[in-house]
Amino acid sequence: MAKDLNNVVKITSVDKGDFSPILNALDSGKTILLAVKKGELTSSSLENGRIELLNAYCEFKETSEICGICGCGETADTLIYIWR
């Protein structure tokens, strides 16, 4: 599927590393606007355009100070789109 900006789910917090809301949304064909901390793994995924862990494509949207909680537990500073 392609990125669908008319079918976006915003996820700003990954509760205790529980990725099931992300996986469920991806499985349902949704595009996700996800808050993440832009570290080494995020930068690498954005360079490649894929998040292998989620079997999904990714694209940078914007840098945003304190926009949520990343799956790593740290404060998120970046919003990205992910989709399958």
CATH class, named Alpha Beta
Gap between N and C termini, in Å? 6 Å
Query: What percentage of residues falls in helices of 4 or more residues?
Result: 10-25%
Total individual domains: 1
Structural class: alpha+beta
Strand-helix topology:
Elements: E1 8-11, H1 20-27, E2 31-36, H2 40-48, E3 50-51, E4 56-69, E5 75-83
Parallel strand pairs: 1-2
Antiparallel strand pairs: 2-5, 3-4, 4-5
Outline the structure in words.
The protein has 84 residues and is of the alpha+beta class. It has two helices and five strands; from the N terminus they run βαβαβββ. It has a five-stranded mixed sheet, with helices on one face. A hairpin with a 5-residue loop joins strand 4 (56-69) and strand 5 (75-83). The mean pLDDT is 94.
Write a brief structural summary:
The protein is α+β, with helices and mostly antiparallel strands. The chain is built from 2 helices and 5 strands. The chain has a 5-stranded mixed β-sheet with strand order 1-2-5-4-3, with helices on one face.
From the structure above, extract its key features:
84 residues; alpha+beta; Translation Initiation Factor IF3; globular
